[in-house]
């Protein structure tokens, strides 16, 4: 958030020396500020939400929108976790791999 705020407040303009598709993750985020800023925009950060002054805190009209977006992302993650638990096999799994993950029927029959 600090990088985004400084970029907007100082009206910085970056250029990418690659093909404008640099990988941005925690380890490589400082290599290309252009692609980093573009990623900020692509994940929904709003230029209008940055204060022009240096005042901290307070409320703005974007707070509820960000909260709603966070809630939707959390709901999606919960659905994905619920539908891809350990009992569900991935589509890429071959029948041989699936049999390896399923409990052996012979083992359960011998217990009776």
Describe this structure in words.
The chain has 112 residues and is mostly helical. Among the domains are: 1-45, Erythroid Transcription Factor GATA-1, Chain A (2-Layer Sandwich), CATH 3.30.50.10; 59-83. The protein has 5 helices and no strands. The protein has helices at 2-9, 33-42, 63-83, 95-101, 105-110. The model is unreliable at 104-112 (pLDDT under 50). It holds the Pfam family zf-C4. It comes from Petromyzon marinus. Residues 84-112 are annotated as: Disordered.
How is this structure best summarized?
The protein has 112 residues and is mainly alpha-helical.
What does the radius of gyration come to?
A: 23 Å
The CATH superfamily of the domain at 1-45 is known as Erythroid Transcription Factor GATA-1, subunit A
Count of helical regions: 5
**Helicity, as a percent range:** 40-55%
Features:
disordered C terminus; Erythroid Transcription Factor GATA-1, Chain A; mainly alpha; 112 residues; 5 helices; zinc; nucleus; transcription regulation; 0% strand
What are the SSEs and their pairings?
Layout lengths: L1 H8 L23 H10 L20 H21 L11 H7 L3 H6 L2
């Amino acid at each position: 958030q600090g990088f985004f705020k400084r970029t907007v407040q100082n009206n910085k303009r970056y250029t990418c020396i690659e093909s404008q598709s640099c990988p941005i993750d925690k380890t490589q985020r400082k290599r290309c500020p252009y692609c980093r800023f573009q990623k900020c925009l692509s994940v929904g950060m709003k230029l209008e939400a940055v204060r022009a002054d240096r005042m901290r805190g307070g409320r703005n009209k974007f707070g509820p929108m960000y909260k709603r977006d966070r809630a939707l992302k959390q709901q999606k993650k919960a659905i994905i976790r619920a539908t891809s638990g350990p009992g569900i096999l991935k589509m890429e799994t071959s029948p041989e791999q699936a049999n390896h993950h399923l409990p052996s029927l012979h083992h359960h029959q011998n217990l009776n």
